[in-house]
Amino acid sequence: MYAFDFEQPKTIAEAVAALADDEAQPLSGGQTLIPTLKQRLAMPSKLVSLTAIPEMKGVCMNGNTLCIGGATPHAVVAAEASAYPALAALASNIGDPAVRNRGTIGGSIANNDPAACYPSAALASGATIVTNSREIAADDYFQGLFQTALEEGEIVTEVRFPVPQAANYQKFVQPASRFALVGVFVAKYADGVRVAVTGASNDGVFRWTEAEAALSANFSPSALDGLSVSADGMIGDLHGTPEYRAHLIGVMTKRAVAAAS
């Protein structure tokens, strides 16, 4: 590790002010950032921790919407998001206990790793990502591999999930990292079904619109018979070919629908 300044603000306003420095980098759980610093892939001169800001922590219900503070660890989401069982189950299977107690939902959403779990939940739920300055619909927020709508110095303060009628997340785990080789989140609402896929595409999380249309008409695994995802643009690596990942999308979606039903 190299020398850098460290600040731990107590309010969102203090955090935003600290991040006004061009060389400052926000630090949430640090599950991605710290290894990046160790490898010198990034070398900010100042880290601004978001973990001591009370207004960015906690889980609560507001009507039929589950609100989770951006600095809330995965373990807390797993324990306290009982109003949205599929989301709580997703959080309980992220990484290992150390990761779940340090990593945060805001850090995951801000990083938008192509194999992270939370982006699929946010996109499938039609969630709203709240920052220090605005509210962003999930459909507008995720913009590609490690790319989001966040602007310089903007931080995720809260994520709001409309609770669906039924939902489930199925993850085909890459054993070494515990990331999703392919993960599919299915959420059924009164106005239709949303299906989001993580771990598979070179462009990051995406919605499988053909499956959404079929499931909105008939919410059962059989509705997906004959549907498939093209392997074009899928990730290919030592863990699986693009064709393998495309096949897994169909398999995991059927499993998610069966479990949600």
Automatic annotation (TrEMBL):
Under the heading Gene3D superfamilies, the entry gives: 3.30.465.10, CO dehydrogenase flavoprotein, C-terminal domain, Uridine Diphospho-n-acetylenolpyruvylglucosamine Reductase, domain 2
Any one GO MF term held by the record is:
oxidoreductase activity
Superkingdom, according to UniProt?
Bacteria
What Pfam families does UniProt report for this protein, alphabetically? Answer: FAD_binding_5 (PF00941)
The alphabetical list of record keywords is: FAD, Flavoprotein, Oxidoreductase
Q: Where is the FAD-binding PCMH-type domain?
A: 1-166
Annotated PANTHER family: XANTHINE DEHYDROGENASE SUBUNIT C-RELATED
Per its record, how is this protein called by name?
A: Carbon-monoxide dehydrogenase medium subunit
